[in-house]
Amino acid sequence: MLKGKHIILGVTGSIAAYKSAVLCRLLVGAGAEVKVVMTSLAKQFITPLTMATLSKHPILVDFFNPENGEWNSHVSLGEWADLYLIAPATANTMAKMATGVADNLLLTTYLSARCPVAIAPAMDLDMYAHTATQRNMAQLRADGVHIIEPGSGELASGLVGKGRMAEPQDILKAVEALFSEKKKSLEGKRFLVTAGATIEPIDPVRYISNHSSGKMGYAIAEALVQRGAEVTLVSGRTALDKPEGVERVDVLSAEEMYEACVERFQQMDGAVMCAAVADYTPAVVADEKLKKSDSDMSIALKRTKDIAAALGAQKGSRVLVGFAMETQNERENAQSKLQRKNFDFIVLNSLRKEGAGFRGDTNIVTLIDAHEQVELPLMSKHDVAEHIVDKIETLL
Ligand code: PMT
Fold first, then answer.
1. Which of 68, 77, 225, 270 would you label with 231, given CA atoms 20 to 30 Å apart?
2. Is 357 in the pocket of ligand 1 (CB under 6 A)?
């Protein structure tokens, strides 16, 4: 089940850390490749030698090796992993994760991880029940972190109650379920995703375009594929590589994107319209490079076809998701697009919010449908994509 999966096992300073050794062994036994990241305090509970022997990899604790200055790159660790599992996760580490504190390697790796994250909390019953801990857990759930619930029973303090880290066997089952859930939930479904910027030529040299990098749309295509869907990505101009397992159709203009989408939509179970499509294109494309003169110049523009509206008109029972990139009257404009284009829901992002919109690796979005508006905090585009795909699943 876990053959070939890359798992980072994060170990924090709890008495339950002794169970991490068993957990590590179980993960490796199930075929996973495991790298262990520990906090300094965790080393007091279980030795790095034990964890290194069981995981067959050196243990990572510090940002760099003081002997030779070699860096332990949290970024490449985060990219390497298919799952980041933190077990045990103390109340302290959960609080830091919930607020984005990054004062050790285990936490910087969390902030860099592009993969799903699961945590197995471990603490005394009063710490677990405390409002602050519960609030942090709610925040982590909202951030997409999977929580493997602790069990009830006798705790190290001698008290009896909820807070004991789940047993390693149960954590292994939860991890296996996470992978198989992700793998199967959209098997047999087909999706069209648009991404990137369109290019509207003025002459053989110049064009009208926009700032879309394609990152948001590509993250959605990846998230759909990871859950087993067949994905056709109709991509405007971008510098990104084709995501694995995706069929990519490269287009340039809004007209080409329209043709590619309309031709394929009937065979799909749904579509996500994330591309930034030009609303206007030059009425005439000059055959030769336009020469400058001393006077100003105007270029006549004509409307492009609205791809999303065309798909909305023939959507039937298919799921259709749109985006709204706004700079003012955000919600009103998004709601009007939701209705006009017949979307099931629309993902609103605003250029007025720092960390949202074009080019960056993060976004801040609100998911709006006919019944509710769910505001998500700042998160990676990868995580936004997971939220969008979660919502799509509820509509299928
Ligand atoms: O690519 P990134 O750098 O990661 O940036 C991501 C993004 C900002 C491009 C993305 O999150 C986003 O907001 N995409 C939609 C941008 C946009 O064109 O929004 P809009 O409000 O103008 O269009 C509304 C909807 O209609 C969109 O789903 C759009 O794809 C669609 N549309 C628009 C015009 C047109 N002619 N045809 C369309 O299908």
1. 77
2. yes
pLDDT digits (tens, 9 = 90+) for 192-218: 999 999 999 999 999 999 999 999 999
**Pair type for strands 200-201 and 190-195:** unpaired
Ligand 1 mutation pick, 210, 211, 212, max ligand atoms within 8 A of CB: 212
* Separation of alpha carbons 36 and 59, rounded Å: 5
Q: 78 is written with which tokens?
A: 């985060």
- What's the pTM value of the predicted model, to 2 decimals? 0.64
Within the chain, which residue ranges are assigned CATH 3.40.50.10300?
187-395
CA 81 to ligand 1 centroid distance, Å: 31
Query: Is the CB–ligand 1 distance for residue 221 below 6 Å?
Result: no
Pinpoint the residues of the chain covered by CATH 3.40.50.1950.
Answer: 6-183
Cα(298) to centroid of ligand 1, in Å?
26
pLDDT digits (tens, 9 = 90+) for 227-255: 999 999 999 999 999 988 899 999 999 99
Q: Which two tokens stand for residue 98?
A: 């919930």
Q: Which CATH superfamily is domain 187-395 in?
A: CoaB-like (3.40.50.10300)
208 alpha carbon – ligand 1 mean position (Å): 15
Q: Does domain 6-183 have CATH number 3.50.50.60?
A: no
